[in-house]
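Sample intake sheet
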Amino acid sequence: MNILVLGGTQFIGRHIVETLLAAGHGVSVLNRGKSPDELPPRVERIRADRDQGPAGLAGLAGRSWDACIDVSGYTAVHVRASATALRERVGRYVYISAVAVYGDPELRPVRENHPRVAPAAEDVTELDQESYGRLKVTCENLVEEFFPGRCALLRPQVVAGPLDPSGRYTYWVKRATRGGEMLAPGDGWDHVQVVDVRDVARFARAVVEGGLGGAYNLSGPRITWAEFVDILGAERVAWVGARVLEAANLSFLELPLYRPERGPRSGLMDVSNERACAAGLVLTEPAVTARDTGDWMRDREMPATALSPAREADLIAASRRTSARP
């Protein structure tokens, strides 16, 4: 098959491209050409800018593909431009959305038939924690409008694995290898759930090859924090309870992945993958994801967005003071 990938050079997109190539497909990538590109020479590069609307996609004129996989559509400006340009040029449009479309649902586990949050207006272009899910809903609606009966919506959870630039999952892998006493959030019984990027890539390929349609939640095995910390191989662990962490007013960036059970946004750590698994999603074991991520990042500097060593030590000390009180 000939497949167009919108994005394609970073993390999820790069894994998708490499998975398609390994299966023998021809791949074109469309992007602005401003990100590092380590893809093989046999990948066709098409330079375009969806921020400019339809005018920025002139390079697609006269071309057609069996399918398109949209990894980089975050706003209505992006998706309306590509959907308009590709409506008659691709057989199937696969949109990489996110579980953030469900907001913070109370009913668990989260399934594909859960209500989504209200869509953002099409003129909203600022991407932040509040707008992200709503923007993804707007983009999903556009894809379904332009490609009725020939589109698929893939809703990954937190995506982890080699090439991850975010610092969310990689913080914990790196922290465990640094040694010393490591803060572990909660009491070990809260849950963490991520999906391996390679599983996302393989499922995207399966969707294209099988002509699958509809929405699919892409989530990995749901494990406790005690299991996660054990997988990480941390030598010395200090459990810091939810009350101490809440009093410290930590952001999701400072303490990535941790969401206390039934606390804010914890619903997105309880996402059903049943529909996707029935359609061919195969899950990597959490220990393999941690090992391979650690191998990839061993000699790399990761974003310093999470807890500093000093902040971590302060929280551990605060937890012990709280425990020592009569």
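Comment: The chain has a mean pLDDT of 93. Residues 214 and 283 are 20 Å apart (CA to CA).
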